[in-house]
Amino acid sequence: MFNSSIAVLPDPMHSKSEERFKAIGQSDDGRWIFVVFTLRMRSGRKLVRLISARYMHKKEVDHYEKETAALQKR
After folding, report:
1. What residues pair up with 20 in beta bridges, in sequence order?
2. Distance CA 27, CA 54 (A)
3. Exposure class string for 33-65: b at 16+ Cβ within 10 A, else e
4. Could you write out the three-class secondary structure of 1-61?
5. Count of alpha carbons within 13 angstroms of residue 25, beta-carbon side
6. Comparing C-alpha atoms, which of 8, 5, 34, 33 is closest to residue 21?
7. Nearest to 23, CA basis, from 43, 53, 66
8. pLDDT tens, position by position, for the chain (74 residues)?
């Protein structure tokens, strides 16, 4: 799904019962994708449970690019 490196961040605000994560990255055609997921253990194997996946809106992309640029300056 993702073409290049991705940012994976914890998402504690959206669930009290399980640890959730959000991932942001670009597809092969350059569109930004936002994914929410959790990890589950089944039969001794760690599995990814997808909660949501969608293309990001322009406003979200602009915010993400601004935030990552500020982090890179540190």
Report:
1. 38
2. 11
3. bbbbbbeeeeeeeeeeeebeeeebeeeebeeee
4. CCCCCCEEEECHHHCCCCCEEEEEEECCCCCEEEEEEEEEEECCEEEEEEEEEEECCHHHH
5. 16
6. 8
7. 53
8. 777 788 898 988 877 788 999 999 999 898 999 999 999 999 999 999 999 999 999 999 998 888 887 777 66
Domain ranges of the chain: 7-66
d(CA 32, CA 46): 26
DSSP single-letter state for residue 18: S
Write down the pTM of the prediction. 0.80
Q: If residue 55 lies in a helix (H) or strand (E), which one and from where to where?
A: strand 45-55
Domain 7-66: state its class: alpha beta
Query: Any idea of the CA torsion for 27, 31, 56, 74, to the nearest 10 degrees?
Result: 80
